[in-house]
Write a structure and sequence with these properties.
By secondary structure, this protein is mostly helical.
């Protein structure tokens, strides 16, 4: 769905998806937790980068999600929806789990800091 949207609509669509997943969990509808974590991680990343805050910490994602989010970020940069350094931030924030399966971790904490002007 997100890959069919204009780059300008991606952040809103990701935010809405997070809200739907949150509602599903609140109503005890089963959702794969790795899917929930993945989309919430990406939403947090998009908001952080869009607001020009520094991304620190690392998210470990399934390889398919990593590749999809990477293409989405590239598309958003081209459309001037994210700053030009967003790809560098992406590589600092996300790691595909199949590359680091031996680490046995799914996530680490993400924190943000305001970037100096």
């Amino acid at each position: 769905m997100i890959d069919d949207l204009p780059a300008q609509a991606v952040c809103k669509a990701v935010r809405l998806e997070c809200q739907m997943l949150s509602d599903d969990l609140a109503c005890h509808r089963p959702e794969p937790l790795d899917e929930v974590f993945s989309i919430e991680s990406f939403d947090s990343f998009l908001q952080t980068v869009k607001e020009r805050r520094r991304v620190s910490g690392t998210y470990f994602l399934p390889a398919g999600h990593f590749d999809f989010y990477k293409k989405t970020v590239e598309r958003m940069i081209v459309a001037c929806q994210l700053p030009s350094d967003a790809m560098k931030c992406f590589y600092e924030a996300f790691i595909a789990t199949d590359q680091h399966a031996d680490e046995g971790k799914h996530s680490l904490r993400l924190t943000t800091q305001i970037l100096p002007h």
